[in-house]
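Fold it.
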Amino acid sequence: MSWVATVEKQIPARVRDDISPECGERTLHKQKRKAGLLKEAATREIMRVREYAEGDLEALRQIHARQGFDYPFPDLGDPLFVSKLVLTESDGEEPEASGGKGIVGAALLRVTAEAYLLLDPHEGTARERWNWLLALHGASERDAWRRGLEDVHAWLPPQIAEKFGRRLAQLGWIRDDRFIPYCKRLKKR
């Protein structure tokens, strides 16, 4: 399955003059008129978003290496990668035949889990609540592993982060500030 995306692209004036009429010269003239002879004008470029194919692997490895980020290239054979999309310059070629040619990017989504702990603060002693936490922690860790998850994340409310964070560290959790987390709330479209 693939989708076509239209991308606005800035074309420098020296290159713009070489555009043939069928590539949108008329649109560029309108833009020049509106903008009072812009130095650059936008034209549309057709890009293709499609599902990842095995032949794309080397091209994606090269893109990852050029980015220079301090994390290993992901294992795209891992079933936790539930969405693997690549962006290519549209040439209509089938992914298997392209051998990764023309790939300019990819979006890879891996399943992870967010932990929520609900313990009644009005029940039991501090020692009892700690033991309850230990029981839930061990059971949920085994359950997550059994379901195929590789990691679990917890976002702590600021008012408990310092004290409770130390407790989590005792249980093997690490605070990872190497990367700044962002969240995208999805809505039905």
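Confidence is low (pLDDT under 50) at residues 13-23.
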